[in-house]
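Lab notebook page, bench 4
Experiment: in silico fold of construct C2
Operator: M.H.
Input chain length: 151 residues
Purpose: comparison with the prior construct
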Amino acid sequence: MKFVYLFSVLSIFFSSCGLSIGKEIGRVSILNEDGMADGDLSFHFDSGDEITFWTDDEMTFETGVDLTIHVDIFKNGKPFKTVDFDPRNTKGCISDEKKTRKGITNWEYHCENESFVIEENGDYKFKVKYTSVNDSTLHLKRLDFIIRASL
């Protein structure tokens, strides 16, 4: 019973914040043991489905680091759209812990970054890659790209 109550309270809270939680339907770990990795996810979506991009990251950096997640979206096998975003620019978070000390920021978060509504039925592929300006002050511990959908 407590779980149902907690879920209800959290649902009301997140919907009032404007977060589009949706259901997690795919996750790509862009950071692996060998360093950076590209990843891709494929789904069939129908017109009207709402898609949100989330990141679940943990990093340490100094101010001024340039971070970008680049997503090439293909619809029915053809280039459709490109989305670039800084994962630190968020629209809302499930969890967000940020501490800065002596110019060094430690940040761990699970946040919404981008959202859009599917306009046409189709098979969609998302090719994801992370880019940054070479910066020795950036230390990534976790870098996950997540797609959530309200189907």
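Observations: The two ends are 27 Å apart (CA to CA). Residues 66 and 133 are 6 Å apart (CA to CA).
Next step: discuss at group meeting.
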